[in-house]
């Protein structure tokens, strides 16, 4: 049984216009058999106007014909006309639960270090943050910079590995351009797989160690 719109109104129409059994209607609409019986007796859904599932595109006429001819047959609802479009609709900015928002600077630092080819917009989509926050982490002006530890956003459950790989693949051409321009070293140790980075005891663990401490003015 697939979810259908207005199940009770659909059940009213099927009771009034078909010879389907209570079990068949209950299975198709997701309602209880006794509720269907109540509709037939006039005790349930009084005043509810029936909704034709065939006209609404939720049921093929052939399915109804088969069900009326065989009481053991269970009808299959038709898929919504725009189901595929709804499934591929572009999502807005990712919502991140409050409990994990404090981890976003760590994820941003990891992405900036390991995938400099990603644009701010891509990072924003991956971890659900703002360009202002990304810039503050990159420029070491974030209020918590000394304590930021670059961490894989997949490990932090801020995005999936599939989503990360997809964004990296989209930015692959940009990375090649950066390597040609000398902005990124293709043999840079910071670009090793995360498991190798973790095994490197000399690898920087905080943003301050990664990029170096900001220069302080000489007060002497």
Overview in brief:
With 220 residues, the chain is mainly alpha-helical. 47% of the residues lie in helices and 0% in strands.
Using only CA atoms, what is the Rg?
29 Å
Total tally of structural domains: 2
Count of helical segments? 13
What distance lies between the first and last C-alpha atoms, to the nearest angstrom?
A: 79 Å
> Could you report the average pLDDT, rounded to the nearest whole number?
77
**Topology as H/E string?**
HHHHHHHHHHHHH
Beta fraction: under 5%
Question: Percent range for helical residues?
Answer: 40-55%
The biggest sheet amounts to: none
Class by alpha and beta content: mainly alpha
Strand runs, count: 0
Which stretches are low in confidence, meaning pLDDT under 50 for 5 or more residues running?
Answer: 82-90, 187-203, 215-220
Principal-axes geometry comes out as elongated
Characterize the structure shown.
By secondary structure, the protein is an all-alpha fold. It folds into 2 domains: 7-81, no CATH class; 98-211, no CATH class. Helices cover 47% and strands 0% of the residues. It is elongated and about 75 Å long. The N and C termini lie far apart (79 Å). The model is unreliable at 82-90, 187-203 and 215-220 (pLDDT under 50).
């Amino acid at each position: 049984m697939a979810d259908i719109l207005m199940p009770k109104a659909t059940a009213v129409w099927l009771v009034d216009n078909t010879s389907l059994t209570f079990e068949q209607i209950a299975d198709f609409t997701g309602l209880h058999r006794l509720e269907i019986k109540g509709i037939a007796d006039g005790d349930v859904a009084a005043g509810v106007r029936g909704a034709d599932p065939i006209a609404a595109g939720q049921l093929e006429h052939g399915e109804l014909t088969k069900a009326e001819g065989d009481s053991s047959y269970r009808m299959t609802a038709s898929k919504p006309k725009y189901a595929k479009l709804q499934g591929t609709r572009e999502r807005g900015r990712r919502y991140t639960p409050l409990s994990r928002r404090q981890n976003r600077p760590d994820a941003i630092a990891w992405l900036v270090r390991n995938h400099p080819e990603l644009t701010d917009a891509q990072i924003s989509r991956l971890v659900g943050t703002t360009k202002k926050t990304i810039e503050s982490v990159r420029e070491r002006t974030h209020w918590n910079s000394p304590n930021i530890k670059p961490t894989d956003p997949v490990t932090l459950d801020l995005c999936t590995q599939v989503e990360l790989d997809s964004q990296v693949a989209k930015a692959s051409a940009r990375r090649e351009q950066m390597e040609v321009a000398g902005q990124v070293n293709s043999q840079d140790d910071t670009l090793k797989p995360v498991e190798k980075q973790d095994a490197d005891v000399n690898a920087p663990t905080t943003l301050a160690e990664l990029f170096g401490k900001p220069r302080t003015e000489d007060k002497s």
